[in-house]
Every structure is written in C-alpha cells, then in structure tokens.
Design brief:
There is one protein chain. The chain has 96 residues and is of the alpha+beta class. The protein has a domain of 60 residues. A 4-stranded antiparallel sheet has the order 2-1-3-6, covered by helices on one side. The relative contact order is 0.17.
C-alpha cells in the first residue's frame, strides 16, 4: 500500500512538471527585434529622446521616402546638449 501511494505521488509530480513546461512560453520566440535607441530629428539635429524603433516610426507617420529621424546606440553631452555618438545612424525612420 505504501509503495502504491509513493508511485501515485511520483506520477503526480512528474505530470505537474510536464504540464508546467508545456504552458510556459519560449522567451526566444516572444523576443522582438524592436530596439531602444536615441533619436535625433534628421533635419534639425534636435534630440527627440530614447524610445523603441516602432514608437519612433509611429511619431513620424506613414513610412515613405523622406527621412524623419536618425537612431543611435549612444549619446554624449548634458541634458539639452545631447549629441549622437558615431557618424552614421544605426536606424532611420521615414515619412511621406
């Protein structure tokens, strides 16, 4: 009788473990390519802030041929005097 209870307990634990892994999401599948960057207005060079690519594109409007903003990985300077690090942006957003 004692071995039957032990076997049932082991099966319940194994079943619970399998069920727990079956209902968890794979983090690699849910990770997006949306990156947080430092954005500058393409025409004026004004610092627009740090945000996701997709958020910046929404602020620029419908993608088109005119460049709206340039995204950089790093900035330098003090608040109000931000400058991008690097000569070329790592991302751009466009508008029509």
């Amino acid at each position: 009788m004692k071995s039957l209870k032990t076997a049932i307990a082991a099966l319940l634990i194994a079943g619970g473990t399998i069920a727990a892994f079956a209902f968890t999401t794979n983090q690699k599948e849910t990770k997006s390519n949306d990156t947080v960057l430092y954005w500058f207005d393409h025409n004026t060079g004004d610092y627009l802030g740090q945000r996701l690519d997709s958020d910046q594109q929404q602020d620029c409007g419908t993608p088109g041929s005119n460049i709206c903003a340039d995204g950089y990985n790093q900035i330098t300077g003090t608040p109000g005097n931000e400058e991008p690090v690097g000569s070329a942006p790592v991302a751009i957003t466009t508008r029509q």
